[in-house]
Amino acid sequence: MSTVSVKVDKVAYFDYLAGTMPKVTVKYGKTDLLAADAVKVDVEYPTSVAVGKNEIVVTAKEDSGFYGSKVVKFNVTGTKLVNKSASFEITGIEKSYIYNGENIKPVVVIKDVKRDVTLVEGVDYTVTYTNNKKVGKKAKVTITGMGGYTGKITKTFEIKKAEMTFADKVASFFNSLF
Questions:
Q1: How many CB atoms sit inside 10 A of residue 53's CB?
Q2: Half-sphere CA count of 76, side-chain side, radius 13 A
Q3: What is the pLDDT of residue 17?
Q4: Which domain holds residue 54?
Protein backbone atom coordinates (compact mmCIF):
# COMPACT_ATOMS: atom_id res chain seq x y z
CA MET A 1 0.00 0.00 0.00
CA SER A 2 3.03 2.26 -0.20
CA THR A 3 1.96 3.75 -3.56
CA VAL A 4 -1.52 4.43 -2.26
CA SER A 5 -2.23 7.95 -0.98
CA VAL A 6 -4.44 8.40 2.04
CA LYS A 7 -5.83 11.71 3.28
CA VAL A 8 -7.82 12.12 6.48
CA ASP A 9 -9.57 15.39 7.29
CA LYS A 10 -9.54 16.74 10.82
CA VAL A 11 -12.64 16.34 12.94
CA ALA A 12 -13.91 18.09 16.07
CA TYR A 13 -13.70 16.04 19.27
CA PHE A 14 -17.37 16.24 20.19
CA ASP A 15 -18.44 15.55 16.59
CA TYR A 16 -16.34 12.36 16.65
CA LEU A 17 -17.92 11.30 19.95
CA ALA A 18 -21.33 11.89 18.39
CA GLY A 19 -20.48 9.51 15.53
CA THR A 20 -19.13 11.85 12.84
CA MET A 21 -16.06 10.18 11.39
CA PRO A 22 -13.37 12.18 9.60
CA LYS A 23 -13.55 12.13 5.80
CA VAL A 24 -11.03 9.63 4.41
CA THR A 25 -9.76 9.67 0.82
CA VAL A 26 -7.79 6.66 -0.45
CA LYS A 27 -6.39 6.84 -3.99
CA TYR A 28 -4.13 4.85 -6.23
CA GLY A 29 -3.20 7.40 -8.86
CA LYS A 30 -6.57 8.88 -9.81
CA THR A 31 -8.54 5.77 -8.83
CA ASP A 32 -10.68 6.20 -5.71
CA LEU A 33 -10.24 2.98 -3.70
CA LEU A 34 -13.27 3.87 -1.59
CA ALA A 35 -15.60 4.39 -4.56
CA ALA A 36 -19.05 2.99 -3.79
CA ASP A 37 -19.02 0.64 -6.78
CA ALA A 38 -15.69 -1.02 -5.94
CA VAL A 39 -14.39 -0.56 -2.41
CA LYS A 40 -10.85 -1.93 -2.32
CA VAL A 41 -9.88 -1.10 1.27
CA ASP A 42 -11.23 -1.20 4.80
CA VAL A 43 -10.84 1.79 7.11
CA GLU A 44 -10.49 1.08 10.84
CA TYR A 45 -11.27 4.04 13.07
CA PRO A 46 -10.08 4.20 16.68
CA THR A 47 -12.65 3.32 19.33
CA SER A 48 -11.54 6.28 21.43
CA VAL A 49 -9.81 9.52 20.54
CA ALA A 50 -8.14 12.43 22.27
CA VAL A 51 -7.63 16.00 21.19
CA GLY A 52 -4.50 16.01 19.01
CA LYS A 53 -3.04 13.32 16.77
CA ASN A 54 -4.88 10.02 16.37
CA GLU A 55 -4.54 7.13 13.92
CA ILE A 56 -6.68 5.17 11.51
CA VAL A 57 -5.63 1.98 9.74
CA VAL A 58 -6.33 1.45 6.04
CA THR A 59 -6.09 -2.21 4.99
CA ALA A 60 -6.35 -3.66 1.48
CA LYS A 61 -9.28 -6.02 0.99
CA GLU A 62 -8.61 -9.55 -0.11
CA ASP A 63 -8.85 -9.94 -3.91
CA SER A 64 -8.53 -6.15 -4.38
CA GLY A 65 -5.23 -6.34 -6.23
CA PHE A 66 -3.56 -4.55 -3.31
CA TYR A 67 -1.98 -5.85 -0.14
CA GLY A 68 -0.94 -4.57 3.26
CA SER A 69 -1.99 -1.86 5.65
CA LYS A 70 -1.17 1.77 6.19
CA VAL A 71 -1.42 3.70 9.43
CA VAL A 72 -2.43 7.32 8.89
CA LYS A 73 -2.55 10.10 11.48
CA PHE A 74 -5.42 12.54 11.68
CA ASN A 75 -6.11 15.50 13.91
CA VAL A 76 -8.96 15.78 16.40
CA THR A 77 -9.61 19.39 17.39
CA GLY A 78 -10.87 20.50 20.77
CA THR A 79 -13.43 23.16 21.54
CA LYS A 80 -11.57 26.29 22.59
CA LEU A 81 -12.64 27.99 25.80
CA VAL A 82 -13.14 31.63 24.88
CA ASN A 83 -13.66 34.51 27.27
CA LYS A 84 -16.60 36.81 26.47
CA SER A 85 -18.09 34.30 24.04
CA ALA A 86 -21.71 33.40 23.42
CA SER A 87 -20.55 29.75 23.42
CA PHE A 88 -19.74 29.64 27.15
CA GLU A 89 -21.39 30.96 30.29
CA ILE A 90 -19.00 31.32 33.22
CA THR A 91 -20.54 31.97 36.63
CA GLY A 92 -19.45 31.89 40.25
CA ILE A 93 -16.79 34.62 40.09
CA GLU A 94 -17.87 37.91 41.65
CA LYS A 95 -16.19 41.26 40.95
CA SER A 96 -15.04 41.52 44.57
CA TYR A 97 -14.88 39.61 47.84
CA ILE A 98 -14.35 40.74 51.42
CA TYR A 99 -11.03 39.80 53.01
CA ASN A 100 -11.39 36.82 55.35
CA GLY A 101 -7.78 35.86 56.07
CA GLU A 102 -8.05 32.77 53.85
CA ASN A 103 -7.36 32.08 50.18
CA ILE A 104 -10.51 33.08 48.32
CA LYS A 105 -11.44 30.40 45.78
CA PRO A 106 -14.71 31.11 44.00
CA VAL A 107 -16.47 28.00 42.74
CA VAL A 108 -16.38 28.27 38.95
CA VAL A 109 -19.28 26.91 36.89
CA ILE A 110 -18.94 26.74 33.10
CA LYS A 111 -21.75 25.92 30.70
CA ASP A 112 -21.07 24.97 27.08
CA VAL A 113 -24.08 26.75 25.59
CA LYS A 114 -23.75 25.15 22.15
CA ARG A 115 -23.82 21.61 23.57
CA ASP A 116 -26.14 22.58 26.48
CA VAL A 117 -23.95 20.91 29.10
CA THR A 118 -22.34 22.05 32.32
CA LEU A 119 -18.63 21.27 32.26
CA VAL A 120 -17.02 19.22 35.02
CA GLU A 121 -13.93 20.50 36.82
CA GLY A 122 -11.12 17.94 36.60
CA VAL A 123 -12.65 16.39 33.46
CA ASP A 124 -13.27 19.35 31.14
CA TYR A 125 -11.16 22.03 32.81
CA THR A 126 -8.84 22.88 35.71
CA VAL A 127 -8.87 26.02 37.87
CA THR A 128 -5.88 27.77 39.43
CA TYR A 129 -5.86 30.85 41.63
CA THR A 130 -3.14 33.48 42.16
CA ASN A 131 -2.96 36.54 44.45
CA ASN A 132 -6.20 35.40 46.07
CA LYS A 133 -5.52 36.17 49.75
CA LYS A 134 -4.29 39.74 50.26
CA VAL A 135 -6.32 42.92 50.22
CA GLY A 136 -5.75 45.25 47.28
CA LYS A 137 -4.21 42.74 44.90
CA LYS A 138 -6.03 41.75 41.73
CA ALA A 139 -6.75 38.09 42.31
CA LYS A 140 -6.67 35.89 39.24
CA VAL A 141 -8.65 32.77 38.33
CA THR A 142 -7.21 30.79 35.40
CA ILE A 143 -9.45 28.20 33.76
CA THR A 144 -7.57 25.76 31.50
CA GLY A 145 -9.41 23.43 29.12
CA MET A 146 -8.76 19.69 29.16
CA GLY A 147 -10.39 16.58 27.70
CA GLY A 148 -12.33 17.91 24.70
CA TYR A 149 -11.65 21.54 25.59
CA THR A 150 -8.57 23.63 24.90
CA GLY A 151 -7.39 27.14 25.68
CA LYS A 152 -7.39 29.32 28.78
CA ILE A 153 -9.71 31.90 30.25
CA THR A 154 -8.52 34.34 32.89
CA LYS A 155 -10.88 36.22 35.20
CA THR A 156 -9.97 38.67 37.95
CA PHE A 157 -11.55 39.83 41.16
CA GLU A 158 -10.70 42.30 43.91
CA ILE A 159 -10.25 41.54 47.59
CA LYS A 160 -11.61 44.40 49.71
CA LYS A 161 -10.87 45.28 53.32
CA ALA A 162 -13.23 43.83 55.88
CA GLU A 163 -15.05 46.36 58.03
CA MET A 164 -14.56 46.00 61.73
CA THR A 165 -17.78 45.30 63.59
CA PHE A 166 -18.59 46.98 66.90
CA ALA A 167 -17.65 43.74 68.71
CA ASP A 168 -14.29 43.67 66.85
CA LYS A 169 -13.63 47.29 67.87
CA VAL A 170 -14.48 46.61 71.55
CA ALA A 171 -12.28 43.48 71.57
CA SER A 172 -9.44 45.41 69.94
CA PHE A 173 -9.79 48.19 72.53
CA PHE A 174 -9.69 45.78 75.48
CA ASN A 175 -6.76 43.87 73.97
CA SER A 176 -4.84 47.14 73.70
CA LEU A 177 -5.28 47.73 77.45
CA PHE A 178 -3.50 44.57 78.45
A1: 10
A2: 21
A3: 87
A4: 5-77
In a domain, 86, yes or no: yes
**For position 91, which CATH number holds?**
2.60.40
Compute the average pLDDT of residues 122-146.
95
Q: What is the pLDDT of residue 173?
A: 63
Q: What is the pTM of this model?
A: 0.77
**Maximum CA pair distance of the chain?**
100
Per DSSP bridges, beta strands 96-98 and 79-80 are: unpaired
Weakest-pLDDT range from 24-28, 38-42, 154-158, 165-169? 165-169
Considering 62, 77, 92, which residue would you say is the last residue of a domain? 77
Give the residue from 69, 140, 64 showing the smallest Cα distance to 104: 140
